[in-house]
Amino acid sequence: MSARTPSNIAYIDGEPLEYKSDDTLLKFVDRHLGRGFVPTLCDAPQLEPYGACRVCSVEVAQAADGPRRVVASCHTPITPGVHIFTQSHKVQKLRRNILELVLSDHPPECLTCEINGNCELQTVAAKVGVRQIRYTGGKNHLDRKKDLSHPYMTSELSKCINCARCVRACDEIQGQFVLSMHGRGFESRIIKSFDTSFNDSTCVSCGACSQACPTSAISDVFQSKAIQATKKTRTICTYCGVGCNLEVSTKGSEILSIQAPADAEVNMAHTCLKGRYAFKFYNHRDRLRTPLIRYNGHFQEATWDEAYDHIAKNLQRIKDEHGGDAVGGISSARCTNEENYLMQKFIRVVFGTNNIDACARVCHSPTAWGMQKAFGTGAATNSVIDIQHTNCILVIGANPTEGHPVTGAKIKQRAMKGVPLIVIDPREMEIVKYAKHLLLIRPGTNVAMLDMFAFYILEAGLVDKEFIEKRCVNWAEFEHGVS
After folding, report:
1. What is the pLDDT of residues 22-34, one digit of tens each?
2. Do 67 and 190 share a structural domain?
3. What is the largest CA-CA distance in the chain?
4. What contacts 53, CB < 8 A, 6 or more positions away?
5. Cα(114)–Cα(103) distance, rounded to whole angstroms?
6. Range of the domain at 225
7. How many structural domains is the chain composed of?
8. Is the model's pLDDT at 395 over the cut of 90?
9. For residue 433, how many other CB atoms are within 10 A of its CB?
10. What's CA 381's distance to the chain center, in Å?
11. HEC profile for 145-199?
């Protein structure tokens, strides 16, 4: 951290503290005093600042005793030497007034508060000291029916406070643009697609809107907003290779819901349909509950000790009779690195054979071979976060929005922010509509096309020869091959 100088110091309620160049007033306060010290409703850590509710209002001044003005802290950039007053009488009164107005148009019998006790609106109202509603109730909660058409999410917009967090989650996180705000005044409401039902909309069931909603106006069919869970476990999704973090809420042996942690660097409060909702298999009636051993062509239930003894005895028998090379192992890409390490160690050390394989060699063999030859390793050479720092994105031979939805959504977001996206593939996939350039090649012509790229790079003299000399081998051979 840089030394304290007047250029990077601001004041929170009179205390001088260091800030970062990209801080807003709210980010600055959150980092030093904890998130929630300044209450918010429309703000969420995974979303861009919006400034709709003004609950996060603070007073600011350029001097401790100078003239003050009220601003929304979530989207106001910090400036050197600014004094921020977070708990003045004026801002506390303003926050209470805002919450009273919001609550006047909220159903008083809302079960999110009464049963689940996990409602951000209720929490913020209590924090700012709202004790009674002084305004006549609106009509928002009188004429909005529940939408139960979706298999994973419910919509009860009588609870909606028009914070637009669901709209922004759909736009900024998933890039699906299913939800939007329609109408004005008391007629303002959230609609799906062209004002259809949830099920008839273009929703992809990522659940980002459900997780972002502070009042359960949009929620999922599981108990993600309930407080009945007795344990929350942080784990990693195994459906694809992105490595999304998940937070699994359980009570006893029952999974109540799965959420995506906001502090996860890989997915930051985002996951796909599979990661968030596809967990019912764990207690499905068809799932095996005990090991099965085949005797005389029929499976019989066994204990774990019996199963382990059976496996060990027969593997030892095969090794003794036919040698270690008669044994082979197939590991899983869905396992952790540690588990796969143990598996290959088991095969190589115990049996003395290199007969160990994995599905990655089959479905990714061309990719892994090419990267091994070019970079010395068949593994990825960069991280997902690099997408946020690139000036151009090239997608070739991949369908990221289907194969790796969270990464695909990040690519879509960058493309929508103006980063050129080039797609080269025989198919017109979803991500094509975000591309600046599309090349629909014939199947099997990838190598010829890439050789053409190399040829024109060489012909235009765009090669960094110093880089090539330091880092590449057999360059002359490659240059001759594409000339």
Report:
1. 999 999 999 999 9
2. no
3. 91
4. 40, 41, 42, 43, 98, 102, 161, 163
5. 15
6. 135-283
7. 4
8. yes
9. 11
10. 21
11. CEECCCCCEEEEHHHCCCCCHHHHHHHHHHCCCCEEEECCHHHCEEEECCCECCC
Q: Same structural domain for residues 69 and 164? A: no
User: Which residues partner with 383 through β-bridges?
Assistant: none
Q: Looking at residue 58, what DSSP letter applies? A: E
Q: Which residues pair with 71 in a beta bridge?
A: 58
Residues 146 and 203 in one domain: yes
* Cα separation, 165 vs 344, whole angstroms: 47
Residue 156: name the closest of 211, 100, 210, 102 by CA: 210
- According to the model, what pLDDT value does residue 137 have? 62
Coil/strand/helix, residue 132: coil
Residues 6+ apart with CB under 8 A from 466: none
The pair of three-digit structure tokens given for residue 282, joined into one six-digit string: 């764990």
Angular region, 185: left φ>0, alpha ψ -120 to 50, beta rest: left
Q: Are 71 and 58 in contact (CB under 8 A)?
A: yes
Q: Could you tell me if 83 and 59 are in contact, meaning their C-beta atoms sit under 8 angstroms apart?
A: no
pTM of the full predicted structure?
Answer: 0.83
State the residue for tokens 């998940």: 246
Q: Is 147 in the same domain as 277?
A: yes
Per-residue CA distances from 232 to 98, 116, 264, 273, 335 (Å): 33, 16, 15, 20, 21
CA distance 374 to 141: 61
DSSP string, 277-307: H--GGGG-TTS--S-EEEETTEEEE--HHHH
Rounded distance between C-alpha atoms, residue 69 and residue 71, angstroms: 7
Confidence bin at 365 (pLDDT 50/70/90): confident
